[in-house]
């Protein structure tokens, strides 16, 4: 099995997806409405991107800004529509009002995924108890990744948490891969790789013109070089 670090790039459309793959991305996170921190794209967008690239795609399951699940039955139905459009990997995460994981909502949506692999996203960074959340979710089918900055405020503040969690790799609740994203910069990479973290997620960092502009293959290539070149 390849030991190459994973580089995941946010894509909004086919243009983004093609550029990200050209730059060396291993996987895409497909979203829409970044003004709301990323919502579920349409099945048509997912199908078009699936036809345009051959790298892995993870599709966001989130219908409104925030970390409440909202209409869980609707969300489960949307997941089914996305699977029909070619999606076979997903991103989701729901919290209850007290900051604990909304386990019932997560379980309902995961059941609709039928065993597909999925990421629990940065809702973990807003959780009241990260360790408890991990242990509650540990046995859910398909969960293989946590997207996290280690802190709600970003990687700068979250570095100690990320490195501490990486040191627990393989322990109960810590078998899933840590995918670092949220204020991630190139200068963080070497320290994270030295701490045995091998997966990185970028959004705005892949877009020289900001979210109004497309993904740049050259920007992604710089990240590819950085994550491959850092000690791991």
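Sequence proposed for the structure above (232 residues):
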């Amino acid at each position: 099995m390849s030991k190459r670090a994973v580089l995941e790039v946010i894509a909004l459309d086919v243009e983004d997806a093609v550029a990200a793959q050209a730059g060396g991305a291993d996987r895409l996170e497909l979203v829409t409405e970044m003004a709301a921190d990323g919502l579920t794209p349409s099945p048509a967008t997912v199908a078009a991107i699936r036809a345009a690239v051959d790298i892995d795609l993870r599709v966001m399951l989130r219908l409104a800004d925030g970390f409440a699940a909202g209409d869980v039955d609707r969300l489960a139905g949307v997941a089914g529509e996305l699977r029909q459009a070619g999606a076979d990997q997903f991103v989701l995460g729901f919290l209850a009002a007290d900051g604990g994981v909304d386990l019932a909502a997560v379980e309902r949506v995961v059941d609709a995924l039928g065993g597909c692999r999925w990421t629990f996203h940065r809702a973990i960074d807003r959780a009241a108890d990260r360790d408890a959340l991990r242990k509650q979710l540990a046995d859910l089918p398909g969960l293989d990744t946590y997207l996290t900055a280690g802190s709600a405020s970003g990687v700068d503040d979250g570095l100690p948490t990320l490195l501490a969690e990486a040191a627990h790799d393989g322990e109960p609740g810590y078998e899933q891969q840590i995918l670092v994203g949220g204020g991630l910069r190139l200068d963080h990479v070497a320290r994270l790789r030295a701490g045995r973290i091998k997966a990185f997620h970028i959004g705005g960092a892949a877009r020289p013109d900001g979210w109004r502009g497309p993904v740049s293959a050259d920007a992604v290539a710089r990240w590819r070089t950085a994550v491959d070149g850092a000690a791991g």
